[in-house]
Design a protein that fits this description.
Layout: H1 3-25, H2 34-62, H3 66-72, H4 74-91, H5 98-123, H6 129-163, H7 177-192, H8 197-243, H9 250-261, H10 267-292, H11 301-317, H12 319-325, H13 333-350
Helix pairs in contact: 1-5, 1-6, 2-4, 2-5, 4-5, 4-6, 4-7, 5-6, 6-7, 6-8, 8-10, 10-11, 10-13
Length: 351
């Protein structure tokens, strides 16, 4: 084995992996498991393979000089492909807060950088170690940073919708345009100073971690406040359901009318379902806050039994009726994300 080649590869990937591990440790809410981070790295690796393929095809097809293409066109192609997994995650409601959105973006960028650097190792065989120091501490961190910033801006643009009713949510690609433009611009600026590798490396090392650290620090406080406020809202909802107040509300009466026409389930099943959903969402919020405060509480048999009851109720009510009553349940997209976080956690307990 060529020791020099191995050393260059390690120098080119260790910095971005180290930063990813540091950022993942900031995830005091435990949103992203190592398994999920590994999947994100693979998604970034896939984006790199697609980018390299498309870049090569475009250079060959249009006979563009490689240096010119790398400066003007590569940033657009690469940022678009790195953005694609993040957009898919947003579409499927897998990114709840800026913390997990930013870390997910950085992980995808890290996976991209690892494959790109492996490819360059096969193409630039006569480069010295300093080249790979710049690629490791500069280019690789840039790739992680631009995708993280894209993800953070995408979260900011879609945050208001995520806090509204999940039934009225409409996924719109237009919300991700500002983020992709910023990512491409940063990539352009990085390439512009490519002739000053030490400057670009130092600026990247300083600015990217600083922006992400500050974002995560402020967002951690915002998450705690939001969860506490939302927990109060769900406790009030539980009180309204248990006291019968919800049944007489506008949404409760609308659900009654829907159930009068339904051939599956009954009104008692529906109100039991709504009660159980609120209990599980509230429990999810309690566990997220507990992980932040280092409290020794966790999901267990009680949550497993609650999910089993929920499945039975869903079977009795039926998917069509559930879709009909969804607009009247009052759950936000964030509520559903929290519910799914608890469901995933409970499924791990059963494995």
């Amino acid at each position: 084995m060529d020791f020099d080649l191995v050393l260059k590869f390690l120098v080119s990937i260790v910095p971005v992996v180290a930063f990813l591990l540091v950022f993942s440790r900031l995830d005091v809410f435990d949103f992203l498991s190592l398994k999920v981070i590994a999947a994100l790295l693979l998604a970034g690796a896939g984006a790199a393979v697609l980018s390299l393929t498309v870049n090569g095809s475009l250079i060959y097809t249009f006979s563009i000089e490689t240096g010119r293409y790398s400066f003007f066109f590569a940033p657009v192609v690469e940022e678009l492909f790195k953005a694609l997994p993040i957009i898919i995650l947003f579409h499927h409601n897998r990114l709840g807060y800026k913390l997990d959105a930013g870390i997910s973006g950085f992980a995808i960028g890290a996976g991209f950088a690892m494959i790109e650097n492996m490819w360059f190792l096969t193409e630039i065989t006569d480069s010295n170690l300093s080249t790979w120091l710049v690629r490791g501490f500069g280019t690789a961190i840039m790739h992680g940073g631009t995708t993280a910033i894209f993800s953070l801006i995408g979260h900011e643009m879609t945050e208001r919708q995520a806090e509204s009713g999940s039934a009225t949510y409409s996924f719109r690609l237009i919300y991700f345009v500002p983020g992709i433009l910023v990512a491409i611009l940063i990539h352009f600026l990085f390439n512009y100073f490519v002739g000053q590798p030490l400057v670009t490396m130092l600026l990247t090392l300083l600015l990217v971690p600083l922006v992400l650290f500050l974002t995560f620090a402020f967002n951690e406080q915002a998450i705690s406040k939001w969860l506490k406020d939302d927990s109060e809202k769900h406790r009030q909802a539980l009180d309204d359901i248990e006291s019968g107040k919800f049944a007489e509300s506008k949404d409760g009466l609308a659900i009654r009318k829907i159930m009068e026409r339904s051939i599956l389930g009954n009104i008692d099943d529906v109100f039991a379902y709504i009660l159980l959903m609120n209990q599980l969402i509230l429990r999810a919020e309690e566990l997220i806050l507990a992980s932040h405060d280092d409290e020794e509480i966790d999901a267990g048999e009680a949550e497993v039994e609650m999910f089993e009851r929920l499945m039975l109720l869903e079977g009795r009510i039926g998917p069509i009726t559930l879709m009909s009553i969804e607009p009247h349940l009052g759950f936000s997209r964030n509520d559903i994300w929290e519910f799914n976080q608890l469901r995933i956690h409970v499924e791990r307990l059963l494995d």
